[in-house]
């Protein structure tokens, strides 16, 4: 079972709880029926979808080695032209993960690699992204058949470019690949282009350019969380605002910095 860190109470957290009352009766050796009011209250389980998905993903990555492939063969179009990644190879696509989180002792699997572009606000707000497509497959007589597929990707605040989302056996079958098992589909997270912010090299710091007027002493912008950030200029060309960058943990309590570059017009 996944243990989540404590959080502020939600609607499901604030229900009536029975308090334990000390008994004024003397001890007795005669068994008595337990009074429900004397039992400690149990902490309710969180039903936030993002928390549930976090636990599911954590359990998937910690599954036994025999349930994980020994290698992943990534391709984009042609299944015979792939990039192999495993415990012993140079890893670029899977570099964000410890090798034992993705690789085990089961047979290697082919993976149809796609990209999913998301904004910083979507990551902060833990957006749920749905994708649907038609997979080229075969019916029971071997004829070509288009089969509907769908996938839901739950973003978490600690997600960074390179985070992977897998849909088992949801890829296209190909006449160039004799395997009767369809490949997996994997969406790889990338930063959406055209945002007000850009990510710095350390992944958690953000950078933004702000135009100001000559002699202006104060400016305001909205952060990725929607909060307004007001800062003094004081003749600076670059300002670092601590704790307003991307989250470093899944709760979003630890964050990188926001670097504001000032452009005088």
User: Which strands sit side by side, in order, in the main sheet?
Assistant: 2-1-3-7-6
| Computed Rg | 26 Å
Mean pLDDT comes to 84
User: What is the architecture of the largest domain at the second tier of CATH?
Assistant: Sandwich
Element pattern in H and E: HEEHEHEEEEEEEEEE
What does this structure look like?
- The protein folds into two domains: 49-191, HSP40/DNAj peptide-binding domain (Sandwich); 198-264, Urease metallochaperone UreE, N-terminal domain (HSP40/DNAj peptide-binding domain), CATH 2.60.260.
- It has 265 residues and is mainly β.
- It has helices spanning 49-61, 99-102, 120-124, and strands at 71-75, 83-86, 109-118, 128-138, 144-154, 164-167, 184-191, 198-199, 206-212, 218-222, 228-232, 238-241, 258-264.
- The longest helix is centred in the N-terminal third of the chain and has 13 residues, at 49-61.
Give structural attributes.
HSP40/DNAj peptide-binding domain, single chain, 265 residues, mainly beta, 13 strands, 3 helices, five-stranded mixed β-sheet, four-stranded mixed β-sheet, 2 domains
Short note summarizing the structure:
This protein is mainly beta and 265 residues long.
Chain-wise SSE layout:
Blueprint: H1 49-61, E1 71-75, E2 83-86, H2 99-102, E3 109-118, H3 120-124, E4 128-138, E5 144-154, E6 164-167, E7 184-191, E8 198-199, E9 206-212, E10 218-222, E11 228-232, E12 238-241, E13 258-264
